[in-house]
Structures are given as C-alpha cells and as structure tokens.
Write a structure and sequence with these properties.
The protein is α/β, with parallel strands linked by helices. It has 16 helices and 21 strands. The strands form three sheets. The chain has a 17-stranded mixed β-sheet that branches. The chain has a two-stranded antiparallel sheet with strand order 1-2. It is globular and about 75 Å long.
C-alpha cells in the first residue's frame, strides 16, 4: 500500500484526540422524503431521487473543499466531514447505525521506532544490516523495547499455510523464538505457473500482512520478507519510505490479528549475501520454494537487535446510517467508503490542502446517492442496508478493521459488503473493472447489470500487485464476508482505452495523494453515475431476496465464511 503518512505524520495523531459529536446545528434537519420528490439541503442544492451527475458533484465539491481541510483525522476537518455525512443521513431519514449513535469511536496508536541495525552472526563473522538501505524493521507490539538475541534464522519459502491449496511451508517446523525469512507474493507469480495458487494474480497469501500474521501464529520471534521489485509491485524506496517513521495501528486489545514482536523487510542484495555466507544459494531456494513439497531450510545464521520505540494514542470515528429492512431486518448489506484523506501540511508555499476529491470524496458521494435512491424508491428493502463511512483508511484501513473486530451487526448476518473507493471521473467506459476479479458470487449479480449497460466485467491491470488487499473491503473479506470492489475501467466509450489509460496515469502522477486532487466542474461524471447505479443494483437485488452470496470455490476467504455461518447456525 502506498502510504504517505510521513506527510502528515504527527499532525494526524496530535489532532486525533477524542472529539465531541458535532453540534446539532451543523447537521441538516431530518426529513423523510417521499418517492419521486426532491429535498433541499442547507447549501441550497436540490437532491433528486435518481443518481445524477449534479447530485454527485454537489457532494464531491463540498467534501473536497478547502473548508474541510483535506478531511484529516481529528480536528476541524473531521468534525465538518462527519457532520456533513451525518446531516445527509438525517435528511434521508436513516437511523443512527450504531445502536442509536451515529458514530463508532476508533482508537489508534502511533508507533515510532528508532532506526536500528540488525546484527547477523553468519559464517564465522558478524554482518550489520543498516536500517533503511538494507533493512527496515519495526514492531506492532506496543512495547517500548523489543530484543532479539541470537535468534536462529530459517528460510520458510513463501511463509504460507493454505489448506485448500495443499500447501504448508511450516509443515513439521517449530519456529518458536526464531527469525523466519520469506519471499513476497505467491509461488505462482515467480514461477509463472497458473496451476499454483492464482498464477500471476496475487492472493491474500502473497500479501506481507498475511505473512506476518502467519509467522505470529507459528510463534516466530521475528519475520523478514525478502524484497524484490516485481514480487512486491514497488521498489525498495517504497519500503524504506513507508516503513520508516511513524506507523499507525489499532491498540493490541482491539485487534483480532496475531502480532509479532518484530517484523520488517530485508533488501534482495543483502539477503543474497546473508544466504551465501550461510552456504545457501537464494535463487536456488527461490526456485525450490515454488515447488510443491518444499521444506523449510535452516540457515547457519543468528539475528540480534534491540528496537526501542515511542507510542502515542489517538482516536477517530466511523459514521453510519441504517435503513432498516421490512421483513429480514437482522440481515445486513453494507455500502462502505472511507471519508478520510491526508489533511493539510504546514509550512512552505503554495497549496497545502490535500483535498482528496477523487480519493475518496467520490466514494462518499456514491454511498450517499445510493442511500438516497434506496430511501426514495417507495418500497423499503426486505433486508437492512448499512451505509458505513469509515475512518483512517489512509492510515492502514484502521476504521474498517476496527468495525470488523467490533461489528455493530454480526458478520455472520452480514450478507455482503460493497466498497467504493476513488472512482475516476473520466466519463463512460465499456469496461467495468472488478478488483480481485474471480473472487465471489457477487460478480454473478453484477454481470447482468453491467450487461444491461453495455459493459464488460474485467480484472484490474497488474493483478500481481494485490490491489484487492489494499482497500477497506479487505478487512471484511478476511472475516469471510463476501466483498465487491468494482468501478469504471479505462476503455472510454468514445475515446478508447488509450485515452482512459492516460487519464489514469495522469491522476496517479499528478494528483494522487497530492494537493492537486481537487474537484473540477468540467469533470465528466456520466461514468460514475453508471457505476453508482450498477452498484445500487447489486444491493437492491440482495435486499429483495434471500440469496447469500459466497466466495467461489478455492478462494482463500471461503473457509472463513463457512466457519462463520456454521458457528451462527
């Protein structure tokens, strides 16, 4: 995940202290519109019952205005953002989604580790790995000091335990107190073998988050992932920039995931040197790790370090509105978007507000428009619909992570989640991109809707980069809830794929996580209108049925869903 938290760093946590609910006068008055009517908000814009470019623009323009200060967690930007979303929920006549409360407080912890070398005793000598250029290590333990003393190092291939794939890199291995070293991504990617996992497409087992969690489950004292540009999907500079400095997480008592005392990355060249001095050929082991039946290899090396860290606590909030179902109210469909962005920076000349118009005022606008359409359709849905605007996505998906760890509505009763994040305003496209295409039966519901729009479902570009695991729906997926993350593609109806590709690249280079991500009245929002209507259609279909969509056979999250439903039964 491209984290740019160094930009706001201590600003976010300094501001992220508990704040009182916004005063009532900042919210629009509650109203229950009747089908086919329009309602006027406090800014004077008339919102109609149908999804429209004008309504979307009104939401996006407000949420990404300089007045909202880049929607940084804490302080005035957060208060204005939550007041606006709550006001729209109240205007639509939704219920407070958290048992009578509009908000769910999300605790967070900032950990800043001191740059620390790692000493490796190998081949009769001592090698010191420099922090930053050769390794980056940190802790999520919350401890002020963590020691690693002469810990045996073990190469565990990809560090994967995938029963459905018949794969266990830890089979017959005891790594308690040891330092495990592993490869990034999946065996299928490096081997270019479509029969291994999902081939080139990264599965959850390929993500660094999974690898650390599994190492913690196995009892390891530390874990180091060997970096390579292709496997990670980014260069060493991204590792160095993202992992150094302040890191954000939930407090340990609020996080269901197991945690390691120490975790980090080691550069490819330095790993090659350490393996060679231990009498091993890293490239030969990489090839072996791509084969079924691979067994871990103990290295003749011991790792030592003492990591000191400082921590600070803070808090942000999720905001939620509920449309209660008429006949199956306990079964819930979730529409989700993250409301936060990077706030503003201080010092220097020029624009310092990171407005986040595309990322993710578009997503918040989308769930508000979907809520409007559900409310004004006349017939209430049979199942309940939860509209969930989550905090701290830019800090590591923490708002959604906290909700999943502390669900207001049981996850076993959550039918599905539809996540909306950063839709590009490039106009109508012939393709509808499903991030993580081939994951769940939600695609079977979306496909005929896309067909009716004359569009084709397609996977994202560069599936090996694991974009499915980098947005808020991922936390629901890990818990087994079927999740859909889909948005307009690049094949522009009139101007073709090259135009769409150039527009996407221009946004990434010039506006993504920059002050230039601002609302433009000249935007063509017709494609976003189609996207929002299609995603509304998915929820509308589910809300009027007794269907429980599932992950496709062989998906890494299917077992979690089956276990959840079985426990509920």
């Amino acid at each position: 995940m491209r984290l740019t938290l160094a930009l706001v760093g201590s600003l976010v946590l300094a501001a992220c202290q508990p704040t009182p609910p916004p005063p009532a006068e900042t919210a629009a008055p509650a109203a229950t519109p009747s089908s086919g009517t329009s309602v006027v908000d406090t800014a004077g814009h008339a919102f109609g019952p149908e999804v429209s470019a004008e309504d979307l623009a009104a939401h996006i323009k407000t949420l990404s205005s300089d007045d909202f200060e880049g929607r940084g967690p804490g302080g005035r930007g957060e208060e204005l953002t939550l007041a606006y979303i709550r006001g729209q929920f109240e205007r639509l006549g939704l219920e407070p989604g958290n048992k009578g409360d509009w908000y769910q407080n999300v605790p967070m912890v900032e950990t800043t580790a001191q740059p620390t070398p790692i000493t490796i005793a190998v081949g009769g000598e001592s090698i010191e790995l420099a922090y930053g250029s050769e390794q980056v290590i940190g802790t999520r333990s919350g401890q002020a000091e963590v020691k690693l003393e002469a810990s045996d190092m073990v190469f565990v291939g990809y560090g994967t335990v995938a029963p459905e794939a018949g794969w266990n890199d830890y089979e017959g291995l005891d790594v308690k107190g040891k330092t495990v070293v592993m490869l990034v991504n999946d065996p299928g990617f490096h081997a270019s073998d479509e029969t291994l996992f999902a081939g080139k497409r990264m599965t959850y087992y390929g993500r660094w988050t999974y690898k650390y969690e599994e190492a913690a489950r196995q009892g390891a004292a530390a874990a180091l992932i060997i970096h390579d540009d292709a496997g990670a999907g980014y260069g060493w500079d991204v590792v160095q920039n993202s992992w150094s400095g302040a890191q954000f997480d939930l407090p340990t008592e609020h996080d269901p995931e197991p945690r390691l005392p120490l975790q980090g990355w080691i550069s490819g060249p330095k790993a090659t040197e350490v393996f060679a001095k231990s009498g091993q050929d890293l490239e030969a082991l990489r090839t072996a790790a791509n084969q079924r039946g691979f067994r871990a290899v103990a290295l003749d090396a011991k790792a030592s370090t003492t990591l000191t860290s400082t921590t600070r606590s803070g808090e942000s909030r999720n905001v939620m509105g509920l449309l209660r179902g008429s006949s199956q109210p306990d079964e819930v469909i979730v529409y989700m978007a993250h409301w936060d962005h990077l706030g503003r920076s201080f010092g220097g000349a020029g624009d310092r507000v990171y407005n986040g118009a595309v990322d993710n005022a578009t997503g918040v606008a989308a769930i508000l428009e979907i809520a409007e359409r559900f409310v004004t359709q006349g017939t209430p849905p049979q199942r309940s619909i939860l509209f969930l605007a989550v905090a701290l996505e830019e800090s590591g998906l923490l708002g959604s992570k906290y909700y999943v760890a502390n669900p207001v509505y049981p996850l076993a009763s959550t039918v599905a989640v539809v996540n909306i994040d950063a839709i590009q305003p490039v106009g109508r496209t012939k393709d509808f991109v499903v991030i993580g295409h081939g994951s769940s039966e939600l695609e079977d519901i979306l496909k005929p809707i896309a067909d009716s729009q004359g569009r084709v479902l397609k996977p994202e570009d560069a599936p090996e980069k694991g974009y499915f695991y980098r947005s808020d729906h991922f936390n629901f997926a890990k818990a087994g809830v079927p999740a859909l993350y889909a948005k307009g593609g690049i094949d522009h109806v009139e101007k073709g794929a090259e135009f769409g590709r150039q527009m996407g690249q221009d946004y990434t280079v010039n506006r993504y996580h920059k002050p230039a991500d601002e609302f433009d009245p000249a935007w063509d929002l017709s494609g976003i209108v189609e996207d929002v209507n299609a995603l509304y259609g998915v929820g509308s279909n589910l809300a009027a049925s007794e269907t429980w969509p599932h992950w496709y056979e062989g998906n890494e999250f299917r077992a979690a869903r089956e276990a959840s439903l079985s426990e509920a039964r």
